[in-house]
Amino acid sequence: MAKLLQAPGKCLSSDWHIANKMQCASTESQKSSSERMTAESQRLVDETEKTTQKTQRDVNKKIEQRREEIKFWKQELDDKLEQIVNETEVLLTFKTRIEKALERCKEPLVIAQQCLLNREKRVGIDLVHDEVEQELLREAEVIKGVIVLLERTLGQTNEQIRLNRSAKYQLEMDLRDKFTALMIDDYCAGLTNNTPDIRYANNAMKMEGNSVSLQDWIDFSNTNIEKADKQRNSSLALRALIDNILSQTVNDVRKQYETVNVAFRNRVKEVKDAKQKLETLLAMVMDETASQEKNIATLQKAISDKEGPIQVAQTRLEARTHRPNVELCCDIVQYRLISEVQEITNNVQRLKDTLAQAKAELKGLSRQQLFLEEEIQVKENTLYIDEVLCMQMRESVSINNV
After folding, report:
1. Domains of the chain by range and CATH?
2. How far apart are CA 313 and CA 291, in angstroms?
3. How many Cβ atoms sit within 10 Å of the Cβ of residue 264?
4. Where is the composition biased (Basic and acidic residues) (predicted)?
5. In whole angstroms, what is the distance from residue 338 CA to residue 349 CA?
6. CA 388 to chain CA mean position, Å
């Protein structure tokens, strides 16, 4: 206990000086180290600040470049979208033209078929497979062929419109994504170190699994643009084809329509000429009938006129049979009376034979008259069908370009 309470030993003066020197040296060393650290820290601060600012400027530049790149592709997509939309609108008008052309085919076809049905009502020899019928059948076939072609073209047009709209949809989806990306990059470009809503974001460094490469990004928009161009070019080619088809089909239908009308006019003229000839023949037959009737009346009168002379001759012969005795001789008078009776009898027979032939001729003329009247009625029926029913009905047809 006494040792514990004993005062510590005193240091030597040299130790004190050494200790002071060592403390000064240690302090100076610590101060130098701290100054170096401070200098290094300032240098690091300056370096990192410069690096950070440089990197941020570079990032800002890259964001601006990216914004310009997105704007460029967005403009390209906008242009293609406008083109495909305009082309689709024009193609829709062509579709309407095809539909109108199909609608306009109905009336000429119905009229051609109705003309064929009407002409089945012709009778007798006029129910003939003539040029008009041949051309009407050809007209119906031409119109049916046109309808088939237009329906097929309408199907192609509907399909092309669908493809155009598909390309338009892809462009719109791409544009929508580009618009969203541009808004995000615009927001990023506007951020500064003093922006209030900047924050730390967890997992910000993680690459999304559905990320694509820059080349894939370019290729995607290129593919959409190429598809739009392809469909627009196909649409342009289809429109040219439609123009040609509409023009050609209208020309074909109009040409056949005129051919049928010419055939109708020729046939009507031919039937009218035939009817006129029949009417001329009928007039001749009727005149001849009147003449023959007069001839029969003359023959009948001639026969009737012979009754008196033959009765006189026969009465004389009968009277002379009563002559007495030798007076009953065959004298010249007797022979002449017998000759007279025979002559008159022969003449009457000849007149009767001629009368029979005249009546036969009259019957023949009557039959011919009836035949001619029937044939004229046939021709009138044919003219009514062709000129009134068919030709007037065809006048309502209008074949124009659409």
Report:
1. 43-190+214-267 (1.20.1260.80), 280-394 (no CATH)
2. 33
3. 20
4. 33-60
5. 17
6. 31
Stated pTM of the model: 0.77
Q: Name the amino acid, one letter, at 375.
A: E
Q: What is the dihedral of CA 284, 289, 295, 298, to 10 degrees?
A: -130
Q: Cα(79)–Cα(224) distance, rounded to whole angstroms?
A: 12
What is the reported pLDDT for 140? 95
DSSP secondary structure letters along 79-116: HHHHHHHHHHHHHHHHHHHHHHHHHHHHHHHHHHHHHH
CA distance 157 to 348: 95
Question: For the chain, what is the total number of helices (H) and then of strands (E)?
Answer: 6, 0
Q: Which of 367, 349, 356, 354 is nearest to 288 (CA)?
A: 367
What does the alpha-carbon distance between residue 290 and residue 390 come to, in Å, rounded to a whole number?
Answer: 40
| 267 within 8 A of 132, measured Cβ to Cβ | yes
| DSSP string covering 214-277 | HHHHHHHHHHHHHHHHHHHHHHHHHHHHHHHHHHHHHHHHHHHHHHHHHHHHHHHHHHHHHHHH
Q: List Cα–Cα distances, 10 to 2, 7, 299, in angstroms.
A: 18, 9, 204
Question: Tokens 């039937």 identify what position?
Answer: 271
In eight-state DSSP terms, residue 197 is T
Mean pLDDT on 257-271: 95
Q: Which two tokens stand for residue 232?
A: 């627009």
In tens, the pLDDT along 47-56 reads: 888 998 899 9
Give me 161's structure tokens: 């419109």
Mean pLDDT of the chain: 91
Place of tokens 């592709």: 73
CA gap 199, 190 in Å, rounded:
15
CA angle 228, 229, 230 (to 5 degrees): 90
Q: Residue 297 — very low, low, confident or very high, per pLDDT cuts 50/70/90? A: very high
Instruction: Tell me how far apart the alpha carbons of residues 282 and 285 are, in angstroms, rounded to a whole number.
Output: 5
